[in-house]
């Protein structure tokens, strides 16, 4: 679906009108193209006194082809336009030390390229040695979320809490996360708090093919987000198994043929669907490294007007079928060590939504699934995460009445809806073998929507 307003705004006459009337001004977002440099300009890296991450961050940036400017920021050329501002705030142990954030960001608040990136690194508050340190580290969230709302022009801002108690997977996880957040892959992700912990991880031989050799299952892949996801994962090197209902067989076959993947026609609510899927995976691949639970439906009504069928269908497709599949695949040990489960939730599951009690219940349940399954599977080296999309331009959102649709599109820091590829790129990063230390996260792909913020 196209956003006609955004296209108009980017035209000559549109620009003039938007300026004169003070209308929302959706910027053109920088999106990933293979071979692109990670950033449109140099990265300015700052460190609070006593920070522990400056060295690994410098190493990671250099490996990604970005020369960090780490000298005294005040010495940098006033005209330099940066691709990113990265700040290691792990050294801040007192609220009085938060002043260092102001000192770093104030002079450079107008020095970022359009679609530039702000990343602040902190220590998870629950790991801090003193209540004062935990307080200061928790405060970082307010800074990053506000920068996401202030800077505009497609700039995104995130907080990454990196464990102080890392293993070999932690630095690889920090690298995969920085590579994702700095690149155009994270175009529609802003105002997020991401936790990098521990877990088995392997850096790829080629960061442009971070999923080489991985067998990935995508449910609901005939169209929309699932189809975009299948294409992104295949582009990044995965062998992709796409699944959808038999009625969508033609569309599904077209997706599978386009990426050299295989197709499974299966209704996830059919009896024994999980067992049949497991049998197929065993026969074709012997395993599945990454399971993406993307299939989802809406059956909207207020709860007063909703019949029980609408309730049951939505809970079954969006939540219970995920549990059944996980159970069978885990029981039969088809997801190996280093495996990934990624589920698609929704901001409706975070904020709630009028007319969507069934849908929001199912999507909040998906978050519960991540919270409970991630620690339970840590010993098996399997990560569990979810993405929570906001307003994404698909057939699902095309059905929303016009006024509500416009509100959904504009009420976020990007003043526009996201594209299926934005959700796909985020799921892709969570699926990378390099992202094993990223587990138990729910990452919103919502352009920093005001809903549930
Ligand atoms: P879509 O309707 O375009 O695609 C969903 C796919 O799931 C369809 O191909 C459908 O046939 C398939 N599916 C439905 N029931 C199935 C079943 N029983 N068995 C197998 N396949 C089944 O929707 P989309 O917008 O691409 O959404 C994908 C996911 O993202 C869903 O989980 C949705 O809830 C979620 N989401 C979407 C948005 C958005 O703005 N589009 C926002 C938040 C969350």
What does it look like?
The chain has 453 residues and is of the alpha/beta class. The protein folds into 2 domains: 21-196, NAD(P)-binding Rossmann-like Domain (Rossmann fold, 3-Layer(aba) Sandwich), CATH 3.40.50; 215-445, NAD(P)-binding Rossmann-like Domain (Rossmann fold, 3-Layer(aba) Sandwich), CATH 3.40.50. It is 39% helix and 16% strand. It has 15 helices and 13 strands. The chain has helices at residues 4-9, 12-21, 54-63, 99-105, 131-150, 168-182, 224-235, 249-259, 273-284, 308-331, 348-351, 357-377, 395-398, 402-410, 420-431, and strands spanning 43-47, 68-69, 82-88, 112-122, 156-162, 192-196, 215-219, 239-244, 262-265, 290-293, 340-344, 383-389, 442-445. Strands 9-8-7-10-11-12-13 form a 7-stranded parallel β-sheet, sandwiched between helices. A 6-stranded parallel β-sheet has the order 2-1-3-4-5-6, sandwiched between helices. The chain starts with a helix and ends in an 8-residue tail after the last strand. The protein binds nicotinamide-adenine-dinucleotide (NAD).
H/I helix tally: 15
What's the main sheet like?
A: 7 strands, parallel
Do you know the CATH topology of the largest domain? Rossmann fold
Read across the widest sheet, the strand sequence of neighbours is 9-8-7-10-11-12-13
- Total beta strands: 13
Shape by Cα distribution: globular
Share in β-strands: 15-25%
